[in-house]
Design a protein that fits this description.
alpha/beta; 5 helices; single chain; 5 strands
Length: 168
Amino acid sequence: MHPAESMARRWMPRALVALVALVALPLAVVASGEPLHIGNFQRTLDADELWVVEIMSPMCGTCQSFAPAWQAFATKHGREVKLGQVNIDTDDGMELAQDLDVLDAGVPSVWAFDKANGEGRVLWKDDAKGDVPTADALAQIIFGAFPGAERLANGFLGKTAEADAGEL
């Protein structure tokens, strides 16, 4: 066997693994939700769809423990609710978290932006014990919070309209 052939055979599997990793990495990010920050968040508020957003930090141990459940939920239910992630380790992500006043709940936490008024509410947050829900438990928490939610024409759950207070 020629030395060039031998070297090609040794490097071919490594090149294939690197190529698969380059393709899989963006897919994993998309499966976890759209990265949200101060510059692009307004469209989630303006959207007709229910948005479920994880507030997280890659440096946080509980966030790392929660990541597989969040990813599994995203993979299974990403066509029912719009999903986003706010990384508070970026300047734009921290600014958004501060603007939304969500840091008091801690990280990780899962929020719903389900009202036409755009205000969010916490659905799940770390209880400081480090206990994280499974993907199925997370689905029960999220979908249990919206028992009467209606599906839009695009298949996603829609935001609920605020009751009009009217005049007395």
